[in-house]
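Supplementary Methods. Inverse-folding protocol.

Structures were first reduced to a discrete structure-token string of length 96. This string, shown here, constituted the complete conditioning input.
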């Protein structure tokens, strides 16, 4: 479902860009200058961006927990508190 929504958002985004380019080239050929795009192009652009953002959050998968406590509870930890782990044994083994 998310991939379909993302595809729809991309197609709408491309269509809004094409419509804006066509509108601006028409205004240039007529000789009028207008600062804003028509409301339907702006709404299509905004809706396509919303579709793409919603779809990308669905495609990205499940979120990781924010709290480190939850992530660390899944891992096997040594019996010593992590702040007091000593690495003296590593140095002496590599010197030989």
């Amino acid at each position: 479902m998310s991939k379909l929504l993302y595809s729809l958002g991309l197609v709408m985004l491309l269509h809004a860009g094409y419509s804006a380019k066509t509108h601006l080239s028409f205004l240039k050929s007529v000789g009028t200058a207008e600062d804003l795009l028509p409301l339907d192009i702006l709404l299509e652009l905004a809706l396509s961006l919303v579709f793409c953002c919603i779809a990308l959050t669905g495609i990205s998968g499940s979120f990781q927990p924010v709290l480190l406590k939850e992530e660390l509870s899944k891992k096997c930890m040594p019996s010593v508190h992590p702040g007091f782990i000593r690495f003296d044994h590593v140095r002496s083994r590599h010197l030989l």
